[in-house]
Specification:
By secondary structure, this protein is α/β, with parallel strands linked by helices. It has 16 helices and nine strands. It binds coproporphyrinogen III (CP3).
């Protein structure tokens, strides 16, 4: 994984899956039950490290990803957060005059930093010396979407209206998030993250002019902030739904690699993105969950298009909870066997 991110091509691509620790694994469900709630799991380092390691033990992925959630950042900035069972996140009102108080922020996120240390320790003691550890954060735009709309949404209308009608106030929020996210990712690196990924899951709701202002520009600043102290730490950007704007994102932000969503045709990515950036993706999670004959065909299409350059095999979005673990095993065996 780390050598691929340095631009060195390997015969078999590194493999990891977004949401690889999660409800499709019985051992995850058992640990989550022990923790109580999803947020308790996120804030209990011993258990969060345990669920991070579970898919590594079971499947031998080439990278582990910190178990947490993007919404711990708004939570640490003082906004209430609950995960109602099977209803996704619900946030409290956006605090008036929200400020970034670094000491308080890092104190609240202390359990996340401890989780990273425990994962590193676990990887070493259990013999996974080659498994990279990915830290992550939500991007400013996507975090603002949840902070303003206060729950999941199809279109994040409230956030988009605020960005357009109350531009000064929204700019202050985005600037604050750039500062908080930069500090958060730098701390994760200091505690043992070897790669960081920035999830911009709702980048795709914006028209081009707003995409530049709220996705590309703030992400560029975060990448620059990280590079000041950690020029060699790879940064993976995931501007889900960006469409043709993926190319502007790849060229402008300075990310090392780019996560490709399920809708992007591999042949387009090969032609328009691979010349500029390392790509990661992009199997459809439901194709994997279904196990349909289409599965191996789609995997081969991805590999045949991306294989001439260094690339990372992944899904185009998080794994679905209905996925039989056996399908993941078959996927990995297929990729590793076919490319020995
Ligand atoms: O990839 C990983 O394994 C690392 C852990 C991780 C989680 N969430 C765990 C999680 C990561 C990187 C995330 C990111 C995240 N969280 C995003 C960006 C990626 C994306 O999916 O677009 C977003 C938008 C969120 C916010 C969030 N968290 C939502 C909307 C939900 C509910 C949806 C759902 O699947 O239930 C969550 C909950 C969540 N985050 C779960 C997990 C494993 C399921 C919680 C459970 O155990 O019930």
């Amino acid at each position: 994984m780390l050598s691929t991110l340095k631009g060195i091509k390997s015969d078999i691509p590194p493999i990891w899956l977004m949401r690889q620790a999660g409800r499709y694994l019985p051992e995850y469900l058992a640990t989550r039950a022990k923790a109580g709630s999803f947020l308790d799991l996120c804030y209990t380092p011993e258990l969060a490290a345990e669920v991070t390691l579970q898919p590594i033990r079971r499947f031998g992925f080439d990278a582990s990803i910190l178990f947490s959630d993007i919404l711990v950042v708004p939570h640490a900035l003082g906004q209430d957060l609950t995960f109602a069972e099977n209803h996704g996140p619900v946030l409290g009102p956006l605090p008036e005059n929200i400020v970034f108080d670094a000491t308080n922020f890092h104190k609240k996120l202390g359990p996340v930093y401890e989780t990273i240390e425990r994962i590193q320790e676990g990887l070493q003691t259990e013999g996974f010396h080659q498994t990279a550890l990915i830290g992550f954060s939500g991007a400013p735009w996507t975090l603002a979407c949840y902070m303003v709309d206060r729950k999941g949404s199809k279109d994040f209308a409230a956030t988009r209206m605020m960005a357009l009608k109350n531009r000064d106030k929204f700019t202050i929020l985005i600037d604050l998030l750039v500062e908080a996210i930069s500090a958060y990712l730098i701390k994760q690196i200091q505690h043992g993250a070897e790669i960081v990924q920035i999830f911009d899951s709702w980048a795709g709701v914006l028209p081009p002019s707003e995409f530049f202002k709220w996705v590309i520009e703030p992400t560029t600043r975060i990448v620059q902030n990280i590079r000041v102290s950690y020029p060699h730490i790879p940064v993976i950007g995931f501007p889900k739904g960006a469409g043709v704007l993926y190319q502007d994102y790849a060229k402008s932000t300075g990310v090392t690699a780019i996560g490709i969503d399920t809708q992007m045709p591999p042949a387009w990515v090969r032609e328009h993105l691979q010349p500029f950036v390392i790509v990661q993706g992009n199997l459809d999670p439901f194709t994997l969950a279904s196990g349909a004959p289409q599965l191996l065909k789609d995997v081969d299409t991805i590999i045949s298009n991306f294989k001439d350059k260094p690339f990372i095999f992944n899904l185009g979005h998080g794994i679905d909870k209905s996925t039989p673990p056996d399908h993941v095993e078959r996927l990995i065996a297929h990729i590793r066997r076919n490319h020995l």
